Every structure is written in structure tokens, then in C-alpha cells.
């Protein structure tokens, strides 16, 4: 009985050896054939489900403000190494316009986020390196690594937001309003952007067709056209001239006539004498 069992063991070992050799042969053949493009690549990241669900949310929406402030304040950026963002030289700051200053401030905030993440990560690595001197606290190590992940996902989100902000000025107003509702993912402005644009355009077209166009008002126009224009005499003066204002208005267009003078009878007689024809000399001959 024991001999039979030993025979079975030897037989199983031989079969496993043959299977291993055939598998090795298959691998050699696959190398000769070349890399299989349909095979799953081994360089794809595989993270824990609890980590994936959290990081995916923070990458698209960012950290809640209170959590972000709490984690940043937990890890100092100064010590035997400075992890602070470098300050801008005053000589250079004076030459920048308002847009340049705001952009530098944005980069400064992002660098400080990276510095806090490096501080958390560095403390965790230091705990591992000092494991022989001090017993390693796995929960404390996990906390530091998790905080580093939070800060890096927030930094990732802020860079995506900055890229979107730099692109938005070249877009139309309707496109800006549409893209503000989208969230970054594998694509900067979200997936299925073409379908969203088509849907927005169709909805805008339907809204214009439903909305009734206002009728033009003709009552006010007809009243204005039927009203006669005011007559102005030659001696008419503008309102400023009548009120004695320093601005004389239309005074330069006024025409002044000399006051009328009474005409004497002698004037009429002189005119009639000068203009009358001389009488013939028939009476003188008679």
C-alpha cells in the first residue's frame, strides 16, 4: 500500500515536471512570436478599493476645505530641510502686472501643497528607516501615507483647474457656462463632451422656438411722427440764452435787425421827386 502511494507521488512529480517544461517551452515560443498586444499589461496600477473610491472623488472635486486646512497644518514644511515654496524676488515682483502676480500666487499655493505632502511622506519613510531604534507603529505610518495621498490628490485637482482656467478665455460665453458644470476625469473637460455640446445647442434652439418674439410697438412711433415740429422765429433764443446762462446756446444763429424808424413826409417827397420823370417842355414853349 505504501509502495503504491510512493508510486503515485513519483508519477505526480513527473507530470508536474513535464507541465513545467511544456510551460517553459510555451514561454520560449511566445518570445519568438513576439509580444502579445492583447495580453493584459503588468504596468497598470492596482489599488485597494477603499483607496480608489476616495481618490477618484478628490481628483474630480478636490478635498473639502476643512479637511484640506487640517491636513496642511498637521505637517510643517520647515526643519532640517525647507519644503516651502520659494518667495518671489521683490525686484522681479515690481515688474509683473496684476495677472502675473495672481498666477505666481497660484503656483505658490500648489508648491506649498506639494511641500506638505513631502513632509508627511518623509516622516513615514523616516519611521521605516528608524524601525530598529523605535518600534514601527503601523497605524501612525498608515495615517501619514494617507495624508500624503490626500494632499497630492488636491494638488492634482488644482492643476487641472488651473489648466481649465487658462483655456476658458478663448471660449464663447455659452461654452464656458457648459464647461463649468463638467468635472475633470480621464479628459480635462470630462467625457462625452461632443454629446453635451450637441444637447446644449439643441436645447438653445428649442428655447428660441418656444419663446414668442415681442410685437413691435407702433403707437409711440406714430405719435412722434404726427407731432408737428415747433416753429422758431428769427429772434428765437435757446433756453440757456433766455436764462442768462454763460453758455449762449444757439445765440450765434440769431439775426438782429435794426429798430424801425419813423419816416417823415419830406423823405417820401424827396424820393418821389428823385424818381419821377421830367415833364416835356411843351408848356414852356406855349
UniProtKB/TrEMBL annotation:
Basic and acidic residues composition-biased segments: 8-23
UniProt biased composition (Polar residues): 243-277
Residue ranges, annotated region (Disordered): 1-23, 208-286
Top-level taxon: Eukaryota
Family annotation (PANTHER family): APPLE DOMAIN-CONTAINING PROTEIN, TRANSPOSABLE ELEMENT P TRANSPOSASE_THAP9 CONSERVED DOMAIN-CONTAINING PROTEIN
Protein's name according to its UniProt entry: Uncharacterized protein
Organism: Zophobas morio
Amino acid at each position: 500500500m505504501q509502495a503504491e502511494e510512493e508510486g503515485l507521488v513519483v508519477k505526480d512529480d513527473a507530470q508536474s515536471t513535464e507541465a513545467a517544461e511544456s510551460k517553459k517551452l510555451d514561454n520560449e515560443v511566445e518570445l519568438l512570436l513576439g509580444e502579445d498586444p492583447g495580453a493584459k499589461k503588468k504596468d497598470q496600477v492596482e489599488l485597494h478599493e477603499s483607496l480608489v473610491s476616495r481618490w477618484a472623488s478628490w481628483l474630480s472635486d478636490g478635498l473639502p476645505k476643512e479637511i484640506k486646512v487640517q491636513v496642511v497644518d498637521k505637517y510643517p514644511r520647515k526643519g532640517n530641510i525647507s519644503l516651502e515654496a520659494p518667495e518671489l524676488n521683490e525686484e522681479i515682483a515690481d515688474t509683473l502686472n496684476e495677472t502675473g502676480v495672481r498666477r505666481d500666487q497660484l503656483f505658490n499655493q500648489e508648491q506649498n501643497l506639494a511641500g506638505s505632502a513631502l513632509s508627511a511622506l518623509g516622516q513615514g519613510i523616516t519611521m521605516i528607516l528608524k524601525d530598529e531604534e523605535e518600534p514601527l507603529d503601523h497605524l501612525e505610518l498608515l495615517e501619514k501615507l494617507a495624508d500624503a495621498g490626500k494632499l497630492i490628490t488636491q494638488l492634482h485637482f488644482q492643476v487641472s483647474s488651473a489648466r481649465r482656467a487658462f483655456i476658458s478665455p478663448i471660449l464663447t460665453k455659452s461654452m464656458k457656462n457648459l464647461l463649468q458644470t463638467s468635472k475633470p476625469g480621464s479628459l480635462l473637460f470630462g467625457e462625452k463632451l461632443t454629446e453635451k455640446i450637441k444637447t446644449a445647442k439643441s436645447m438653445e434652439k428649442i428655447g428660441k422656438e418656444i419663446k414668442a418674439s415681442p410685437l413691435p410697438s407702433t403707437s409711440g412711433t406714430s405719435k412722434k411722427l404726427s407731432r408737428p415740429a415747433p416753429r422758431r422765429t428769427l429772434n428765437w433764443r435757446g433756453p440757456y440764452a433766455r436764462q442768462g446762462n454763460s453758455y449762449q446756446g444757439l445765440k450765434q444763429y440769431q439775426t438782429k435787425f435794426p429798430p424801425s424808424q419813423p419816416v417823415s413826409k419830406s423823405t417820401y417827397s424827396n424820393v418821389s421827386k428823385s424818381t419821377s420823370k421830367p415833364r416835356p417842355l411843351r408848356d414852356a414853349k406855349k
